[in-house]
Write a structure and sequence with these properties.
The complex is a heterotrimer of chains A (361), B (292) and C (272). By secondary structure, chain A is of the alpha+beta class. Chain A folds into 2 domains: 223 residues, P-loop containing nucleotide triphosphate hydrolases (Rossmann fold, 3-Layer(aba) Sandwich), CATH 3.40.50.300; 113 residues, OB fold (Dihydrolipoamide Acetyltransferase, E2P), CATH 2.40.50. A 6-stranded mixed sheet of chain A has the order 6-7-8-3-9-10, sandwiched between helices. In chain A, strands 13-12-11-14-20-21 form a 6-stranded antiparallel sheet. In chain A, strand 7, helix 5 and strand 8 form a beta-alpha-beta unit. Chain A starts with a strand and ends with a strand. Chain B has one domain: MetI-like fold, CATH 1.10.3720. Chain C has one domain: Orthogonal Bundle (MetI-like fold), CATH 1.10.3720. Helix content of chain C is 77%, strand content 0%. Chain C is built from 14 helices and no strands. Chain C is flat, with a radius of gyration of 23 Å. The chains are: A alpha+beta (361), B mainly alpha (292), C mainly alpha (272). Chains in contact: A-B, A-C, B-C. At the B-C interface, helix 2, helix 3, helix 5, helix 6 and helix 7 of B face helix 1, helix 4, helix 5, helix 6 and helix 7 of C. Chain C: It is found in: Cell membrane. Chain C: Keywords: Cell membrane, Membrane, Transmembrane, Transmembrane helix, Transport. Chain C: Belongs to the binding-protein-dependent transport system permease family. Chain C: It comes from Siculibacillus lacustris. Chain C: Pfam families: BPD_transp_1.
């Protein structure tokens, strides 16, 4: 077990910059998820920790060892790949034993460790099978077993669940989390799926274009996103955004560029922000139907999608689409006019996207 | 311990090195040697010392009608054979591109000419073409047609050789195009049929354009080999009668290993080399354009 | 409609049978002639029904030293293919994994160049070094046939193996070369079979290299068959028996490894 320190790491291929200076401190035993859209550099960063990519500049430390120039085999990390990378000509047991054999561990100890890992993962009955005779979920488990037997300093996961179907993915999610709680090994996990990140991580690192946008615990990212990108990326359905300005003159509220007026309760911050170009961000679950016609802003209902536990309504306000999510059952229909009001909202700088204020009503 | 080993650090060089050295020493070096010889007066039989004579070999050979004839003959043989093979091979592939009983057997049969020893194939066809006992003339006369001299006559030797090449190599085009057809997705064909295209229109506007890159690549692969055809011609006619079937490759062989006029042989080989190189560059161009 | 379909179907099979006969005809003629006496062969009109004889085969394997040439061909082909694998597999791996395209083109040159353009210097050098009519010269020359085939087929095959397999092995503690040896090679069986079959057949069939570099001692089968024609003026039965003997191994190999051979032959032109 060990901490991982990434200090101002950069990576470029030819002229393209993949990572533009990334620093992350991962504590011993922590489960950190790197998340971001494809091409943000998260997989490259993970592969650099594994030693599969060279580091253009900066430092990577595992424990207190600088590992920049270490070969992958000398880093004592284990990695689970997106396509599992199981060795097709070896049995399940052979796949798990391979790394131990390479390390010259004696036969009895190998058998013991393989048996233990197989037991943890429920693979005991499958030890003599070959990978092509396994289902997707079983292969996934073998890939994890291969990592577990090694008892490495750090586990690396590169989108390990993206080849599984939705149901299995949810099940494996909790299995991996459970595994982390049992083994207490440092884990770095890459995904593009923000739900995976939210549900599994101790701490999330949101990346975009080779930079870290924000680092924090899942709910911290959800409650206080650093900027528009993180606000839009974390949370599903995504946060609604309206461009416009704050007005504090005869009425207090937010005037969207489309003309929609969102009445807001008075607050000292409004004064400072008045007149600046802003973006108003409201999560779908932070919209409710206003008590009176005067209390909110008017929208026209376009689509109603009830799932039973909640109702998702897509509505339009002067041409701008909004999504609202209600826990209670409203009988709204397409074409209805509604008045919505936020229970919680964020204000972002219209120019650089930084979050300026978050207000609960 | 934490230092990568020598092999690991230099694996990009070490892995390909033996193969690289092999080709460089045993092929590139000899080719350069051949090139150098082309500027000398070397004749293995005369025993005279090697002398630098500049471009004289080139001048001599270029003025030799036998050389010009050989170039024309090489091109005639190659182009005729490959065009026939391409058309016939593609047509057969399109016919066979459906499920039918014995398809696997038919594909095996198609493989047989490709893997047959060319020298032996040449000999079999010599028996077939034999003017007095050959089956070819028997077939002609039973159809009431005049008998031919086939490879024994200067007028018919090239077409007769083309027939052999077509027999042996048409199946290669067929197999390649069949593989290409098998790799196409079903949807465009279904879409065309839903759009109301007739079988012929599907073939003309969907199938052929879609396998065209594959056909072209097969054609160019074939072109390169056809230009270098040696075994069959050497075994069947040795370039004769007279020089009537002497291609550049045969001529180069004779100048090298029968007359031992190394300098002039080199010029012939360089000419062939450039013909092949032109076609090879065609491959590269074609592949890159079909990839986009 | 139904009748039309059946007619079309019948027509299709007629065409298929016709094509098959055209392809097969020279083989059938060769085979039948190899069992004919000289009198039957030169009979006019050609005889379809005759009493078969084994005398041609007896002659080829008895009087002619065919078994020796057979062994020569096998040894030369086997060694050339084996050595080509030894140097070609790592090169193919490098081409596939480190995208060394220029190396691929370089090795492909051997496939593109006319053999004679390097055979003449070979002849001169082999004479000087006393390597004429030795296995060394012959095997090396046949490697120029086998190596490009091995590299061409195997680099395409390695491309189809996900690179994560070696990466995983490397994270697991293997060196790259060990991952190549313990992970990649053991799962490359189908590719290696394709490469070996194809390169062996092409080496087996090669005429020109042996014609120039070998004499009595290392003579291979194609030369033997060719000489047989020149010496035994129109002993057609013997020649046909010899032709059967030389073609049989390549054809048997092809039958056993049909799928692999088709794949190898079409791989260059069809991607995937």
């Amino acid at each position: 077990m060990a901490s991982v320190d990434i200090v101002n790491v950069k990576k470029s291929f030819d002229r393209a910059e993949i990572l533009r200076g990334v620093s992350i401190h991962i504590q011993d035993g922590e489960f950190v998820v790197l998340v971001g859209p494809s091409g943000c550099g998260k997989s490259t960063l993970l592969r650099m920790i594994a030693g599969l990519e060279t580091i253009s500049s900066g430092e990577i430390k595992i424990g207190d060892q600088l590992v920049n120039d270490f070969t992958p085999r000398d880093r004592d990390v284990a990695m689970v790949f997106q396509n599992y990378a199981l060795y097709p000509h070896m049995t399940v047991a052979g796949n798990m034993a391979f790394s131990l054999k390479l390390r010259g561990i004696d036969r009895a100890e190998i058998d013991r460790r393989v048996a233990r890992a197989a037991e943890i993962l429920g693979l005991t009955a499958l030890l003599d099978r070959r990978p092509r005779h396994l289902s997707g979920g079983q292969r996934q488990r073998v890939a994890m077993g291969r990592a577990i037997v090694r008892d490495p300093r750090v586990f690396l996961f590169d989108e390990p669940l993206s080849n599984l179907d939705a149901k299995l993915r949810v099940a494996m999610r909790s299995e991996i989390k459970d595994l982390h709680q049992r083994l207490k090994t440092t884990m770095v996990y890459v995904t593009h799926d923000q739900i995976e990140a939210m549900t599994m991580a101790d701490r999330i690192v949101v990346m975009r274009d080779g930079r870290v946008e924000q680092t924090g615990e899942p709910l911290e990212l959800y409650d206080t996103p650093a900027n528009l990108f993180v606000a839009g990326f974390i949370g599903s359905p995504a946060m609604n955004f309206l461009k416009g300005t704050i007005e504090v003159a005869d009425r207090t509220g937010f005037v969207a560029d489309t003309g929609t007026f969102v009445p807001l309760p008075p607050s000292p911050t409004h004064g400072e922000l008045a007149g600046r170009p802003l973006v108003l961000g409201i999560r779908p679950e932070h919209l409710r139907i206003a008590d009176g016609a005067a209390g909110g802003f008017e929208v026209g209902v376009k689509i109603v999608e009830p799932t039973g536990s909640e109702t998702q309504v897509t509505a339009t306000a002067n041409g701008a689409d909004l999504i609202a999510l209600f826990r209670e059952r409203h009988t709204v229909r397409q074409g209805d006019q509604l008045h919505l009001t936020p229970t919680h909202f964020h204000l972002f700088d219209g120019q650089n996207g930084a979050r300026l204020a978050s207000v609960s009503i | 311990m934490h230092k990568p080993s020598f092999i690991e650090k230099n694996i990009r060089i070490l892995f390909p090195l033996p193969a690289f050295l092999f080709i460089a020493l045993l092929m590139i070096f000899p080719i350069v040697y051949t090139l150098a010889l082309s500027f000398t007066s070397w004749n293995l039989t005369s025993g005279a010392p090697m002398r630098f004579i500049g471009l004289r070999n080139y001048g001599q050979i270029l003025l030799e009608p036998r050389f010009v004839d050989a170039i024309v003959r090489t091109l005639t043989f190659t182009i005729c054979a490959v065009v026939i093979e391409a058309v016939l091979g593609t047509a057969i592939a399109i016919i066979l591109n459906r499920a039918f009983i014995g398809k696997s057997l038919a594909k095996l049969l198609l493989l047989l000419p490709l893997v047959s020893t060319p020298v032996a194939v040449g000999i079999i066809f010599n028996l077939f073409y034999d003017p007095t006992i050959g089956l070819a003339n028997f077939a002609l006369s039973s159809l009431g047609l005049p008998q031919g001299l086939w490879v024994s006559s200067a007028a018919t030797v090239i077409p007769s050789l083309i027939i052999v090449d077509v027999w042996q190599w048409t199946p290669m085009i067929t197999l390649i195009v069949l593989a290409g057809l098998a790799g196409l997705s079903e949807e465009p064909f279904e879409a065309a049929r839903v759009d109301g295209a007739t079988q012929w229109q599907v073939l003309r506007y969907v199938t052929i354009p879609m396998v065209m890159p594959v056909i072209l690549t097969a054609v160019i692969l074939r072109l390169i080999d056809a230009l270098k055809t040696f075994d069959i011609i050497f075994a069947m006619t040795g370039g004769g009668p007279g020089y009537a079937s002497e291609t550049l490759n045969i001529m180069g062989f004779k100048y090298s290993f029968e007359y031992f006029r190394m300098g002039q042989a080199s010029v012939i080989l360089i000419a062939l080399f450039f013909l092949v190189l032109l076609c090879s560059m065609g491959i590269m161009k074609l592949r890159s354009s079909s990839e986009n | 409609m139904n009748k039309n379909n059946r007619l079309q179907n019948a027509l299709f099979y007629v065409v298929v049978v016709f094509i098959s006969l055209v392809v097969l005809f020279p083989f059938l003629w060769m085979l039948s002639s190899s069992f004919k006496t000289q009198t039957d062969i030169i009979a006019w009109p050609p005889k379809l029904i005759f009493s078969p004889t084994l005398q041609n085969y007896a002659k080829v394997f008895g009087e002619q030293d065919f078994l020796k040439y057979f062994i020569n061909s096998t040894v030369v082909g086997g060694l050339a293919v084996g050595l080509s694998l030894v140097i070609g597999l790592p090169a193919a791996y490098a081409i596939s994994r480190f995208t060394q395209r220029r190396l691929a083109l370089f090795i492909l040159l051997a496939r593109l160049m006319p053999g004679i353009s390097f055979l003449m210097p070979w002849y001169i050098i082999a004479s000087r070094l006393d390597l004429m009519d030795t296995y060394v010269a012959l095997v090396l020359s046949h490697m120029l046939i086998a190596l490009p085939i091995v590299v061409w087929i195997m680099s395409a095959y390695f491309n189809s193996i996900p690179v994560e397999l070696e990466e995983s092995a490397m994270v697991d503690g293997a060196t790259r070369q060990y991952a190549f040896w313990a992970i990649i090679l053991p799962m490359s069986g189908p590719g290696i079979i394709t490469a070996v079959t194809l390169s062996f057949i092409f080496s087996w069939n090669n005429f020109m290299f042996s014609q120039v570099l070998s004499m009595e001692k290392t003579k291979t089968l194609p030369i033997a068959v060719y000489n047989f024609v020149s010496y035994a003026e129109v002993d057609w039965g013997g020649v046909m028996a010899a032709a059967v003997a030389i073609m049989a191994p390549a054809i048997i190999l092809t039958m056993i490894f049909q799928k692999f051979v088709v794949k190898g032959l079409t791989m260059g032109a069809v991607k995937g």
